[in-house]
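User: structure tokens for this one?
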Amino acid sequence: MTNRFIRHTLRPTPLTAGLTLACSALHPQTADAGTVKARHAHARTAVHKPVSKQDVVVPTASVSPAAGASNTNAHAVNTGAKTLETGPNSESIVVHGHSMNVLTQDMGFGRMPQDVLHTPQTVNVVPKVLMEQQNVKSLEEALRNVPGITASVGEGEGGMSGDQFLIRGFQAQNDIYQNGLRDFGVYSRDSFDYDHVTVIKGPSSEVFGNGTTGGAINVTTKVAHLGNNYGGSFSGGSGSYYRGTLDLNQQIGEHTAIRITGMGNENDAVGRDNVYSHRWGLAPSIGFGLGTKTTFTLEYFHQSDNRMPDYGVPVVTRPGATVGKPATEYGLNRKSWYGTTYDQDDSSTDMLTARLKHQFNDHITVFNDLKGGLYSRYYSASQPGCDTTCAKNFFTDPSAAMINRRGHLGGPEPYQQDDWSVQNVLSTLAKFNTGSVRHQIIAGVDVMHVYDRRKNYAYNFNGVNGTRADTTSMLHPSAYQPGLLLGGLGQYPGNLVTIPNGVGQKMYKTGDATDVGAFFSDQVWLVPWFSIKAGFRWDHWNSHYAATDGATLADTRLHQSQDTFNPNVSLMYTPNDNAMVYFNWSESTTPLGLYVTNSSEPMTANGSKMHPERSRLYEVGAKYNAFHGRVGFTVSAFRLEKSNAILGSDSNSSVIASSDRQRNQGVELGASGEIMKNWQLIATYAYYDATTTWSTTASNVGKHVLYVPKNSATLWTTYTVAPGKPWNLMFGGGPTWREGVWLNAANTARVPANLDWSAVISHSFLNNHWRVAMNGYNLANRLNYANLFSDRAVPAVGRTFLFSVSANY
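Assistant:
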């Protein structure tokens, strides 16, 4: 056994480097190579860029200094208001509304050219100003502001972890995008490079391709823009938390700029023993032709993360009860962690993205987006299981209750995962008239390939056999297991975990997929106030999966090839620039081989021949910009139907298909913006009625769909006293609430409701260039649950306080 399998100790270098860069960035006289824009930046009502004599700049609504920064992307935000037309050499920005009003937010990529207000679908946005006020540090933290999203821990032989999200109860781990391009990596995403996060709810295959049953998560990153900015931040607090960030942007020519963002982070999880994250990241970008008809942006992203996996506490059923709950609901210490000294999640992610945009004239614009990714990951996680004997002892003789860290799910089986991917999307946006009828056509081609390779390792006891139970006390767990050994590649092949569905004990798993898609849509304005949009996407999906070399059975090699067709039709009534009423019908398809990188077994011998999962959305809604664009309101009612449901198997978490049919219908509400001067608010509410309407397991019919809360809501509000004055003060906060959810299709296991109260107080000084803030999370120290799966739940962090200081020049 080599040191490769030993749990990493604290690594101070990434944090030290990150903090050094952040601190040095706060001195503009030393930053000749770049300028910085702080994570906790103060609001600026104009983008700093050269303005020619021909330019006309329309100022935005008043923004308090502590509120946040304006959008600094290289293109102006499309707000739905009239756009100021200028010549190719002039530069101007038209911004209507307030930075907290998400209806004015640009969708962020060429295939969805409208703003949120004019997108006929439920769209939740986590704006930059909100992430700054909340001191958001990860994608998971950002998505806590979106109702209907839950997090799950993937498992099976080896486990998955990383970001595993569900939208409206449906799998979305393969539906995470950056600037409209799929992010195939299995890792926990830090938010240091985020401008804003958008969640498009409901089937969206016409835009994004296969998948998106519940919706899509799109991250718009920080890229180079015209103007100079200097900034950095440092945070420290509970859980030995230390974090430094930087954001430098430097204009180096009339139409060229470079930008670099960075992060160093080390922290323990408050309220959980032995759980930590040590990570660092860097994201430079360069933009050419900014402010002209032809722009080219090249951006690179790197994140390294060494963290401890956390598979939570088991769900147990009290004698005489019919519904199980997490053991912590019956008095188990919330800090209980059941891993071993071998547990580790060590990932490295590299992505290079090139985006080209050329505007031929006022009618035709062409986009080409190319992205390549390299993902490396070593993962070893214990999977605690509590069988009937364990559960009985827990209630009758707690000291005798023993947790089996191999669980009943086939693990743990450490593995090394090495992936690569490439995707290219070529699209055209065309605007023209046929007589009195106006058209907007979007058409293009999307080509993608992803490859996954995993090497499996085996545990052994004293070099003799691997059948001995790996157990620890339920009440007083220990990370040390005498005699437990972890072999190198090819060592102890007879102790490899048995992959289900007849695959056996295998050393290597290999998967790949190629997708070629073509899409087309046309939005037709029959009259200025009414339009119809119809479109489709066709995909040819080809995937392979192989499990080879090992102690048992012949090699398994599977192949799947499918053609999918996904249509979309929308009706939009827009009486003015500030309102829209719409109807949307769309479909999406999820082939069984879609989850190449983020499932234990993307295909099975039987499943590879089954029909893909299909989902269909019917939605009506309205969006309205009120009070001169200060506040945006949204309301929608939807019905989402899914057939041939793809599930994660409760026994081994391989991706399986069924003929089950599920239906989720409900209502979503939203409000965001500045309701009074200096008083900001963003609030959401969702009601879901999610039911299994048909199943091969008759007893599951009529049961609630797992992981879907019936009610959920978020609220965040802040008020700034004396903005711009030396005695200014910003304070606020709010709750995040999710009703209890079921953990299995039979509705026999459930976690209770989550309620998290958070707050912030901050002060700006030195001409609003500097800011100090204190954030509090889970102020009531309530026992909430973050990640969920069929028989376990991970307790969320306890009461946490973070102090931060940031600067922006």
